[in-house]
């Protein structure tokens, strides 16, 4: 952001305009989620603790003038590494027993996004999405092509089995012997992680990462990596990350719609988030949640599932996490 122009006279008596750059024009802000789903009582503490760890990682990158993109990557990597959440390590398995991850990151100033889908060999899919955002002429890559691009740009590949937890393998085995059912996954039928941050310089980014739905067909892509559905960021309105039943979220293009709900002067972040979830229920016929920051960094969230794991930094000092 540029400050006002001052007239300065130098020793040659030459008058020119000189832009004054203020070091800090925005209060940084960060909000994250660990998915909207029927979180069982015995997973509540683990979800809350994971959200707090992610908030601290993101805030360490954001405070003292850090970049919003580094902050959301740091926060999401913590959530991807935590097996209580359905992203990266601990993702749900497909019907044929593999992890297939999707992720996206979007820059509000340019409306550019980097998205990846169907990754089997990337431990932190958010890193692959960022590589696409920063280094690729395209906005979305899938499966082997996405993995090759990520690897060529410094993102390490792993053995696909490194992403599989014993809990998810057991849930998959129970579903294979019986038929797919939420109770085989302790109610953990949906889930995704996300983050939205704005930094001191007003740079706003949003991101989403997921293992998708359990027992999905191989090759199925949900809302998460789709610009406008799983994530959206526009400097004129704000940034959103979605979670929930992907097919329903896609029907109402929920993330973009939520940012549009921020446009009226009478809108607030909470009202915009609630209106988007109402639309998800009424027209999308589905369940889920979302987090958002408006363009000034004010947080909002809403969900119509029994619970959602979320966290945000209040007034730059207080770390709030809830389930
Ligand atoms: N929202 C995650 C998915 O449906 O894939």
Structure overview:
- It is a single chain.
- The longest helix has 19 residues, at 44-62.
- Strand 7 and strand 8 (204-210) form a beta hairpin.
- It is globular and about 55 Å long.
- The protein has 8 helices and 14 strands.
- Mean pLDDT is 90; it is low at 1-23.
- It has an 8-stranded mixed β-sheet.
- Helix content is 29%, strand content 27%.
- With 323 residues, it is α+β, with helices and mostly antiparallel strands.
- It has helices at residues 44-62, 68-81, 125-135, 143-152, 166-177, 246-251, 254-260, 269-282, and strands at residues 5-9, 15-19, 29-37, 101-107, 112-119, 140-142, 193-198, 204-210, 231-234, 238-244, 288-294, 299-303, 307-314, 318-322.
- The protein has a single domain (10-322), classed as (Glycosyl)asparaginase (Glutamine Phosphoribosylpyrophosphate, subunit 1, domain 1), CATH 3.60.20.
- Helix 2 (68-81) packs antiparallel against helix 3 (125-135).
- The protein binds glycine (GLY).
Number of helices: 8
- CATH-level-2 architecture: 4-Layer Sandwich
Assign an overall shape.
globular
Intertermini distance: 36 Å
Proportion of beta-strand residues: 25-35%
Largest sheet at a glance?
8 strands, mixed
CATH topology description: Glutamine Phosphoribosylpyrophosphate, subunit 1, domain 1
Radius of gyration: 20 Å
What bound compounds does this protein have? glycine
How many discrete domains?
1
Helix content: 25-40%
- Largest sheet: spatial strand order: 6-5-4-8-7-3-13-14
CATH superfamily: (Glycosyl)asparaginase
The top-level CATH class is Alpha Beta
The low-pLDDT segments are: 1-23
Give me the secondary-structure category: alpha+beta
């Amino acid at each position: 952001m540029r400050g006002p122009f001052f007239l300065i006279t130098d020793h040659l008596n030459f008058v020119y305009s000189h832009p004054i750059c203020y070091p800090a024009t925005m209060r940084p802000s960060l909000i994250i989620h660990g998915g909207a789903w029927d979180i069982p009582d015995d997973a509540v503490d683990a979800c809350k603790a994971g959200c707090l760890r992610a908030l601290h990682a993101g805030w360490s990158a954001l405070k003292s003038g850090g970049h919003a993109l580094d902050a959301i990557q740091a926060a999401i990597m913590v959530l991807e590494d935590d097996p209580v959440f359905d992203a990266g390590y601990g993702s749900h398995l497909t019907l044929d027993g593999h992890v297939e991850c999707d992720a996206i990151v979007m820059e509000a100033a340019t409306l550019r996004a980097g998205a990846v889908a169907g990754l089997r060999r990337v431990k932190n899919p958010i890193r692959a999405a960022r590589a696409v955002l920063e280094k690729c002429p395209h906005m979305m890559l899938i499966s082997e092509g996405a993995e090759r691009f990520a690897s060529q740009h410094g993102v390490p590949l792993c053995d696909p089995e490194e992403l599989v937890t014993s809990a998810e393998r057991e849930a998959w085995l129970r579903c294979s012997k019986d038929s797919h059912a939420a109770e085989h996954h302790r109610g953990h039928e949906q889930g995704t992680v996300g983050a939205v941050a704005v930094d001191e310089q007003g740079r706003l980014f949003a991101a989403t990462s997921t293992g998708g739905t359990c027992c999905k067909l191989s090759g199925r892509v949900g809302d998460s990596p789709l610009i406008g559905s799983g994530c959206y960021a526009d400097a004129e309105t704000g940034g959103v990350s979605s979670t929930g039943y992907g097919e329903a979220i896609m029907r109402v293009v929920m993330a973009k719609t939520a940012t549009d709900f921020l446009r009226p002067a009478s809108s607030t972040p909470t009202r915009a988030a609630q209106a988007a979830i109402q639309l998800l229920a009424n027209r999308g016929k589905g369940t889920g949640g979302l987090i958002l920051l408006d363009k000034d960094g004010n947080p909002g969230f809403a969900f119509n599932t029994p619970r959602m794991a979320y966290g945000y930094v209040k007034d730059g000092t207080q770390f709030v996490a809830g389930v």
